[in-house]
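Researcher: Before we compare anything, I want clean individual predictions. No alignment, no superposition, just each chain on its own. First chain goes here; please echo the sequence and then give the structure tokens.
Model: Echoing the first chain and its structure:
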Amino acid sequence: MINSSSKLIGLFGQPVSQSFSPSIHNYLSKKYKKNNVYMCFEIEKNNLEKAVFGIKALNMKGCNVTIPYKVDVIPYLDEVDKNALLIGAVNTIKNKDNRLIGYNTDGVGFVKSLLEENYDLKNKNIIILGAGGACRSIAVELANKEVATLEIRNRSEKNAKEISQLINNNFSTKATYNLNPLEENDLEGVDILINTTPVGMNSMECPIDCHIKPHKNLTVCDIVYKPHETKLLAWAKENNLKVIYGINMLINQGLLAYEIWEDIKTNEEDVEEIKRIYFNSLK
């Protein structure tokens, strides 16, 4: 029940109309009896600074940040968590005593979705499609888990080069980047293929050539969660590959964000209930 004491939490990004995040966080507030309401805000780039300052002006509890502002938002914060600072991207902001503190739960949430499948990441070879804020956080967390190699595939060089250097300068993982479209022979020796681009969001576009015939030990992950089975994951299943769905990462990173705002501990029951809500929303 929204009343005069309700606190606002938001999602800043563009686009946000497809977001499932309100369902996650409004469910958590109801379950844990927190008087919050979570809403989405479509922010134009020239209004990002004003929007962030609005967190203080409106005494919001905090917000999530999504595409394309996870990097751009950092200069407007009072403090950035050590892990988020290393990553160079923020997806969660907490308003603590009128100070805005930035965190990143993307990478930890993604890796948790692999570990939940009992996947051993040590010494694995990985290709990541895209070089945005989600790629940064996922690459850092994978390097934390001592994967052997990371290759960033992106059409433009600047971000891909930056992320590769970030990994090579801070971890034992060997990181490279490649600006060419993925080809069949590029997947030889690769254990995991991860899409961190928005390609496939609410469409049947695929970030790779779907005529590629991959080897059978490849695991394919997509952080896009609408549709549930993206074109990339459909390609993977047609080739009898193991898949990790985007909704798993979204729920994991969302639970971590809520724990930051409210200093509580969520549980596995929350994961299952949010998945039930998600699948019902697809009907």
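Researcher: Okay. Second chain, same rules.
Model: Second chain and its structure:
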Amino acid sequence: MIEDRNFDDLAQKFAKNIYGTAKGQIRQTVVWQDLEQVLAMLEQAKPLHILDAGGGLGQLSQKIAELGHNVTLCDLSGEMLKLAEQEIAKNGLLEQYRLVHSPVQQVGEHLDGLVDLVLFHAVMEWLSDPKDALERLLEQVKPGGIISVMFYNYNGLLFKNLICGNLTHIEQGMPHRKRFKLQPQKGIKPEDVYSWLTDAGFNILGKTGVRTFHDYMQSNMVGDYTFEQVLEMEQKLCRQEPYLSLGRYIHVYAQKPLASDDKSGKETDIDNSNKDNG
């Protein structure tokens, strides 16, 4: 039985290895581009109320708070919340934050009302029942509000094992290797996440592959590139198929219809640039 992962024991290492790396920089950059579009859709009313569910250090929600919005950040890890509070205080944003020590499944008990935007990033793959957690968070979104979901992509995990020749591991079902403590316990199939969103009546606005090729580059490969080139190419390819669906993570964002009885669950586009998102 896979239990929900609590990062109390690895909070410092997690912060350093996830956020302070090239991987983290690519992730922050491409997802922030999507969030800028999301905020542009929602900013008719200010300030917005943001829920950062399982938010860790709140890297992206702090960028949103800097724009004048209010954030509730919850996390299962008390140690992670302590680190988040230090970072938020250092950036002068504590007045706009409410920190809640709670699993994402129970955060609704701590909210005063429905929220404009939910951030649910890199959490589902650590949960025993990701579908249930997502559905509970969808209930916290107000009509017209948006949920931003980033998850560890099953297809990316499979492809990585294929090109590394780990065929026996694949045949065994790709069980979690405990020695890789910061590697998620499982990959989530994109089609499952998309259907969970649309089945709940949400309209998918866009999809982005996060690290569509960076993680597949071999450390001993002979090539001519800089990190700046890698970042630029990631931004160029991340919303195009087939690269999008090979991302180590996928970011998908979806809107709750204004009409509460609309359960059509269809895909729409913010602008023409997203029409090839697949």
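Researcher: What stands out in the second chain?
Model: The longest strand covers residues 141-152. Additionally, The two ends are 34 Å apart (CA to CA).
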